[in-house]
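Input chain follows. Return structure tokens only.
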Amino acid sequence: MALIINGRDQPRKLLSGQRLQPFGFHERPAPPTPINHGGSSGVWPGGSGDHTWTYKDSETGEITIRTGGTIQTQTSFGIPNNATGPGTNDDGATAASAEFGLPSSFQYAVSFVSATGSEGPLSTRSMVISFECDVSSSQPVRVVIPVEDIPIGPDGTMARRIYRTKDMQTGTMGAGSELYFLDEIPNNIETLYMDACPDSQLGSLAQDIWDSDVMPLGVLAAAWFRNRMLVGGGAQHPERVYYSTAGQPERFPTNNYFDVGNSQNGDVVHLQPHEDVLLVFRRHAIDIIVPSELTTTSATAPPFYLSSLVSGIGTASPRSVVSIPGLGTIFLAQDGFYVLTGQHRGEKGIRISRISDSIGAWINRVNKVSAAKACATYNSHDQEYWCQVPVDGSQYPSIGLVYHVAADAWSVRTGIPVSAFAQLPSGHTVFGAHAPAAGSATADDANQGLFVWSAVDQWGYSGTSESASKVSKPTSKWKSVWLDFGEPTVAKKITRITADVITYGDNSVTLDYYINGEGLTSKSSKPTRLQRYHPSDSITGETMDSIVLGSTPKFRDRRRAQLRWDIDSTQCHSFQFQLVSYLGDPKAATYDESTLSTFRLIGFTIEATIGDRKIVWSPGVE
């Protein structure tokens, strides 16, 4: 089951193979209306003879019920043959032993059952229906009570349950006012029920009025934890977290909630399962909901208790919270990315640490006003946490900050207008775009919609409903910032650059460098044929994505190599360079995207001289 929530509107659920339906019960059903049969017109003495009663339904017209030795038109209402019906004079009571002068009285109530098997709040009770069994006979008495106005449930209601009291008589001499299960109507259509069930055949006691209550409309956070649904935040009760009955995700008892209080730390914005607890994220704090079974064996203990984890660290970006197997839970706070590790009942407990100090400059550029629009995902295929954030005043997420788990390092992705993430079962990332993709030439190539982050080297497709063509692939290019080596006023001479790269196929890498903020000089490496063609590399038959190979060999392996450029630059105060990879001979290469190849930069080293002093500088790559 998937939930759609936004903190304002009624939550919606999506079950496998079904359309969207409301989630939860947001109002109590109206009570049904039992119809008084008017004296003895609906009460029959027993015996083998047939007796008829014409009941006029307000919607369907007259219905003739014939009871006795046979059943006719009333079978669709579930009335059994020779039904004794509700009342004090059923179950074989005779005129000699029954007090026919006492009235029989009953009340009814109804509840809805959703597609998840959750039973909603009980309706208020119906009006009391009373009658007297004034038939002077030694035979058992048969009674049928029509119950009209059975309420129709909201969209997604699979059944409705009817409850009835036993015979309350005068209220002081009868069976009491407790409600018992009468029947379940297995649809959400019929509004008339014919009650011919004796007291002795009623089911178990109905739920108490507080066992299932209406849930808030606009919840902001939800999580499935320990066989219960927990929801919280939102416009109606921003400081509360509600938890459902076990096994019934849409049934919320009246008193099943926590109030986190302390408005200084902000409202509830996200719920996230973590190891053996549920994390409750607020803007400036994190609380935990702990299963009581971790601390007590008492059968009367509530299922959970609330505890504070940390104050002063929270999140305004609830969609940045992601749990990563083997690592912990990562989220974006006001001053960077943090990771929560460990278990509540572990030796060291739950620990929190910041992991984004190396990208502090990017964190400072995040637009705090639009931080709530940041979104993130974990790609298990590539072992990377990708968080798209708005920077430099942007209203929408504009930069991707990517944490590579295996390498414990960060990188930055630009030109990808991500607004939402999802993961395929295969481990691939799906994202929704909010603006034209990088490389799009016109509004027709806006590429708004859903995309798969794959190994295809292109910016998606464009075209009409009849044909589609690939949009040009992204440029395989890396450019440094302006470098002054910490001495901006001192002249220096750049002598050599060494790059550690991963290349694919028969390609070369060109280095272009700039000095003192202007001027361009190109230096190209020799062609680096790092992989040799082998017949087994040829692909025959159908290929994915309709790629036509032709006679050009494709190489299936990648290779790591070190490339070196000797620089013959003049003295300069600042220096900048870029790397571009081309296919084939670099002398013939231009900035035509059709000739660009793919490479990955792992790191680089710059050698320079300042007077007689030689320096070697090797920064990390962001």
